[in-house]
């Protein structure tokens, strides 16, 4: 039994379909990291905005409300603490430079206190 060769139209259609599949696979491989970076940047911007808001609230609120403000602002992704001694050593917060700059920009130029940020990478299961 002899098999018939595929017609030219069928061959071109299969070739185009194969090229489309390969192009989609390559673009997915290239841009999967882009999406991850965009999500991390969005989380960092949200955390910086929340930190700036908490700092402003703490500055303007009476001391008896500080624990309630801290509890309300803390979430699984971001944690706030008020202590007499800083939990972040000055040399350990260089990794949060972009987030620190964002917080400082949100607080304005007149905010002169030290801003210390410690960032930990979360590993998804």
From TrEMBL:
Top-level taxon of the source organism: Bacteria
Keyword line: Membrane, Transmembrane, Transmembrane helix
Transmembrane domains' residue ranges: 12-32
Protein name stated in the entry: Two-component sensor histidine kinase
UniProt source species: Phaeobacter italicus
């Amino acid at each position: 039994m002899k098999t018939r060769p595929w017609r030219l139209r069928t061959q071109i259609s299969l070739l185009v379909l194969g090229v489309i599949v390969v192009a989609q696979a390559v673009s997915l491989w290239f841009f999967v990291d882009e999406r991850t970076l965009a999500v991390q940047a969005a989380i960092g911007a949200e955390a910086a905005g929340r930190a700036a808001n908490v700092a402003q609230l703490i500055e303007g609120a009476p001391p008896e409300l500080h624990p309630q403000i801290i509890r309300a602002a803390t979430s699984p992704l971001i944690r706030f603490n008020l202590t007499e001694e800083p939990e972040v050593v000055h040399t350990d917060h260089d990794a949060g430079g972009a987030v620190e700059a964002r917080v400082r920009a949100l607080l304005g130029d007149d905010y002169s206190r030290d801003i210390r940020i410690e960032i930990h990478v979360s590993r998804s299961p």
